[in-house]
Amino acid sequence: MAPEKDLKAILGKLKYSDDAKVVQQITEQTKQVHARMAGIKYKIAVMSGKGGVGKSMTTVNLALAFARQGGRVGLLDVDLNGPCVPRMLGLHGQSLTMTSAGAIPPVGPLGLKVASMDFFLGDASPVRWKGPMDVSPVWLGLMEMNVIREFLADVIWGELDYLLADLPPGAAADKPPVIAGFIPDLAGAIVVTTPSEVASDVVQKSVTYARDMGIKVLGIVENMSEYRCPSCGEVNELFEGNTEAMCEALDLPLLGRVPFDRKLARTFDKGQPLLDEAYPTIQRYQEIAGRIRTLLDYKKVLADKL
Amino acid sequence: MKFVCLNCETYMNFEKVEKPGEGALGVFFGCPSCNAKFSMVTNPGETQMVSSLGVKLGGRTVAAEPFEMTRGTLKDEALAGAGQMGAYLNEKIQGGQPVASAAAPTAAKPGEKASGGCPFSAMVAEMGLTTGGKPGQTASASSEFTWTADAKEKLDRLPAFVKPMVQSSVEAYARKNGFTSITLQVMDDSKNDSPNGMTWSREAEQRLENIPDFIRPMARKEIERVAKERGLATITAQVMDETKDKFMKFM
To answer: Hey, is the C-beta of A8 within 8 angstroms of any chain B C-beta?
Structure first.
């Protein structure tokens, strides 16, 4: 039998070469993401540990609010398995236009550029991948991360003031904070919650995990703060939580409260969003967008007011 | 991944890729010294992993199309490709036996706990955790501090999900400052305590009040960062001036 070789000693003498060109291609992919994102001034992730808190509704309305305030805005629907942004904006059925230079996104109300997995799917079709994904969530995770990488690298966003990324729900060792970490020079994350104690509990976890990953959390938006009866006009609370106390404990600003608004929700459900700036609930989004802009320009505020 | 020719003590060179069968890749390597040839064959799962990276082994001859991987991997039909890995394992490893049988829980050996089929349950039990991930033994509810009645009442008024975090923060502040009793004053003071161990002068605190409340936590962190860079432990009016000067550059 041949004598045992000391692999460590052998490797110590060798110089690694990337002859299969895998490292080179992955480096090029990363460069392409950075190149596409370079024309975007502020990249903001909208996330929540809990599902069903109205994250997409908040993202879409904040994007529209930024656009009303004169911003050039893009909206990336990163919820691959439950994309709903195109339907809310009346863009369902449209698709990305593929060119040799990249994919041109459809343009929605107020000039919003939108990219979503929905543009690849037929009516009622879930996302299904070819291959042996059925036996390994590890492969599925890798696959989805690379699809998101293609959304960042291949869409021609052009020059934008704001790109809002609507992340899927999830709290910790899950995708959202990891996805946010994918976006180069992320300005920060907006976290959406409801006043429900259950939602707040999970949201706290997602904030902690995002911070662990070095993501700056800009603040919290409380959605479904109250409900106005469309018949009698009486306003009632939907939940009995305390988002202010949570914000204080997390040392985060409460950016604003948005009521559950059946009329507004219905217009987005039908893909014919209400855009009237004077409408009270839309006013709330305008105020929140204004606070986010101040937060993003905090260095100027400090120079001015300190 | 690289292969080493142990006889020649050198890396083998990547040569080419072939598709020897459905869902498989044959990746060829050659030793530049002795000319030995070697081929690695991947199973469908490994092939998928390479594909999911969005790379071509050996490099690209033409630039990638937009959304090449997404469009190339989205399934057209519900069942196309399903069970490919299971079929592969069944054929290659299980000798035609249904793969599911390999995953069926085996009877616990003497001295082992029945794990309900979860491969990690024994590890979880060893770590003293329940399957929910919480400590298996209840932590002592008693605190090393004496809470005055009014402080305790204030703490109890907080929502249940916030209470542990606030209690922990106040007690950490009390521990750091050598307090054994927690009063309302200690609770209030702990809110202004900096996690960076910084002390704020009265004047600095007052100037911070000029900043809109929703931006104040961020401002506090930035000011403390400036102090830290200068090796200072106290935020004074001078630190505030220096911070203002620093941010004037962004105007």
So the answer is: no
Matching CATH number, B146-191, of 3.40.50.2300, 1.10.3720.10, 1.10.8.550, 3.90.190.20: 1.10.8.550
- Locate B95 and state its tokens: 């000798």
Contacting residues of B for A249, CB less than 8 Å apart? 162, 165-166, 169
Q: Give the Å distances, CA to CA, from A220 to A31, A128, A255, B214.
A: 32, 34, 6, 10
DSSP element (H, E) containing B215: none
Beta-carbon separation of B243 and A294 below 8 A: no
Question: Residue ranges of the domains in chain B?
Answer: 4-73, 146-191, 199-248
Q: Is the dihedral of CA B152, B158, B159, B161 positive or negative?
A: negative
Please name the residue of chain A whose CA is at the shortest distance from the CA of residue B192: A251
**What DSSP assignment string belongs to B24-54?**
--EEEEE-TTT--EEEEE--HHHHHHHHHTT
- pTM as predicted: 0.73
Residue environment code for B109-132, b if the CB has 16+ CB neighbours within 10 A, otherwise e: eeeeeebeeeeeeeebeeeeeeee
Cβ proximity of B2 and B38 under 8 Å: no
CA–CA dist B21, B181 (Å, integer): 74
Pick the CATH number of B199-248 from 2.60.120.10, 1.10.730.10, 1.10.8.550, 1.10.10.10: 1.10.8.550
H or E segment and range at residue A256: strand A254-260
CB-based contacts of B198, cutoff 8 Å, min separation 6: B224, B227, B228, B233, B234, B235
B127-186 pLDDT, tens digit per residue, is 333 333 343 333 334 578 899 999 988 888 776 767 777 888 888 888 888 888 999 888
Tell me the pLDDT tens digit for each residue of A197-229. Answer: 787 788 888 888 888 888 889 999 999 988 877
A295·B214 Cβ contact <8 A:
yes
CB A185 within 8 A of CB A40: no
Classify A102 in phi/psi space as left (phi over 0), alpha (psi -120 to 50) or beta: left
A127 contacts chain B (CB < 8 A): yes
Helix (H, G, I), strand (E, B) or coil at B167: helix
| Cα angle A198-A200-A206, degrees, rounded to a multiple of 5 | 115
Tokens of A236: 């009632």
- The CATH code belonging to domain A38-123+131-296 is 3.40.50.300
Cβ contacts of A294 on chain B, cutoff 8 Å = 212, 214-215
